[in-house]
Design goal:
about 290 residues; alpha/beta; Rossmann fold; 6-phosphogluconate dehydrogenase C-terminal fold; 8 strands; elongated; Prephen_DH
């Protein structure tokens, strides 16, 4: 199969490397940076450098770009995609992208299926891409009502070939609601947490909890600001929820209300324990 990867950064580069390592597909690469394309070719991550005109040869195209850039690229090059081919993406918001891209490509006989590889690093760019970035990670597919089953099955197969440990199917809206909590909120909280003036006095006073909470504070502000604004309704709900919860902790501490504080802490602990049990049960059912 001829597969085109548009955008050879951390995710796009890792997709290329994983496919080259684990499959016999012909991998074509396209990136705005010619030096990155040459690096990908020289390293063996891709078989061929193409321009947008080369998309007509692709049976599948994966767009590894920011949300707005994906939509812009599809609109600009809609006539370059081969009719009957599958186009997917890798970005972290789905309703914004799937709605707009399907609207453009479906009338042309091109199948758009949203997808989201749940993997990453604190670094960006092709130089940090690896052939095992996706090992054991989740791959989320967000089909539309008219998405053919064969397109979903093909993406699922490729995901397994790339090393993903779990393939999850959800609607674009379900994806965005869940991701606002599991990923986007975590990045906001981590980034806000390190703005304390105490950050630069933490050396020698920190352990695992500090490292866990601050790891994703080192983010790509261009990508994450785009993701946040494309999913702002769901993210604002989560932000308002955590702000309300933090106010409860603050008020209980400020009032020296130890019983209230214990209740709040107990509630959080019990919720975490319940979620652990739930996820463990789901895992047992799949064995």
């Amino acid at each position: 199969m001829e597969i085109a990867i548009v955008g050879l950064g951390l995710i796009g580069g890792s997709v290329c490397k994983a496919l080259k390592k684990n499959t016999f597909h012909h991998i074509m690469g396209l990136d705005a940076d010619g030096e990155v394309c040459r690096k990908a070719l020289d390293s063996g991550a891709i078989d061929e450098i193409i321009t947008a005109d080369g998309l007509n040869d692709a049976d599948m195209t994966m767009l590894c770009l920011y949300p707005e850039t994906i939509v812009e690229f599809v609109r600009q090059h809609k006539d370059k995609f081969k009719p009957g081919s599958i186009v997917t993406d890798s970005c972290g918001v789905k309703e914004y992208v799937v709605t707009r891209c399907t609207e453009v490509l479906e009338p042309l006989g091109v199948i758009f299926v949203g997808s989201h590889p749940m993997a990453g690093r604190e670094f960006s760019g092709f130089d940090y891409s690896t052939d095992d970035l996706f090992k054991g990670a989740s791959y989320i597919i967000t089909p539309s009502e008219n998405t053919p089953k064969m397109a979903i099955d093909l993406l699922s197969t490729l995901a397994c070939c790339m090393g993903f440990g779990k393939v999850v199917t959800a609607t674009p809206k379900q994806h965005d609601i869940n991701i606002a909590f599991t990923s986007q909120l975590a990045h906001v909280v981590s980034n806000a947490y390190v703005k304390s003036p105490s950050l630069f006095n933490a050396d020698g006073f920190s352990a695992g909890s500090f490292m866990d909470l601050t790891r994703v504070a080192k983010l790509n502000e261009y990508m994450w600001s785009s993701l946040f604004l494309c999913n702002k309704e769901a993210l604002l709900f989560e932000l308002n929820t955590i702000i309300d919860n933090l106010c409860e902790y603050r008020d209980a501490i400020g009032d020296d209300d130890i019983e209230r504080l214990r209740d709040i802490l107990r509630d959080g602990r019990e919720r975490k324990e319940k979620s652990n049990e739930l996820y463990a049960e789901h895992a047992r059912r799949k064995v």
